[in-house]
Write a structure and sequence with these properties.
- This is VOC domain-containing protein.
- This protein has two helices and eight strands; from the N terminus they run βαβββαββββ.
- The chain is α+β, with helices and mostly antiparallel strands and 128 residues long.
- The chain has a single domain, classed as 2,3-Dihydroxybiphenyl 1,2-Dioxygenase, domain 1, CATH 3.10.180.
């Protein structure tokens, strides 16, 4: 069954990612790297085979990765079967973007919610 299995990450646009990363570190105790990323590991549901992680990453203000310029954030959802879920979304009339990406981290695809927000769907690579 194609379904979402958790939140894979939250991505934020930033006018100054280095400064914003420092603000999250200094004010909220988020252990952001100098590049503006942090990965939280799931302790309750992790297994050796599927450790599960959630990532927060900051992107430059002018990035096109997150979607239209007015979209400040993008939700990344972990899925267990990207191809089936994308087909299911298309069948339901959901706007599904035509490109997918296969990387060392797994397979990625994108859809758009009714308010125009791009959502990233992520089928993690084996062991992620």
């Amino acid at each position: 069954m194609a379904r979402v299995t958790g939140i894979g990450g939250v991505f934020l646009r930033s006018r100054d990612p280095v400064r914003l990363a420092a603000w999250y570190r200094d004010n909220l105790g988020v252990p952001m790297s100098e590049k503006g990323t942090v990965t939280f590991h799931w302790l309750d549901t992790a297994t050796n085979e599927y450790p599960g992680t959630t990532t927060m990453a900051l992107f430059a203000q002018d990035t096109q990765y997150i979607g239209e310029p007015h979209q400040r954030t993008m939700l990344n959802l972990r899925v267990d079967d990207l191809a089936s879920l994308m087909a299911k979304l298309k069948a339901r009339g959901v706007e599904v973007l035509p490109d997918t990406e296969d990387s060392e981290f797994g397979m990625f695809g994108w859809c758009v919610d009714p308010e125009g927000n791009r959502i990233e769907l992520w089928e993690p690579a084996e062991g992620m």
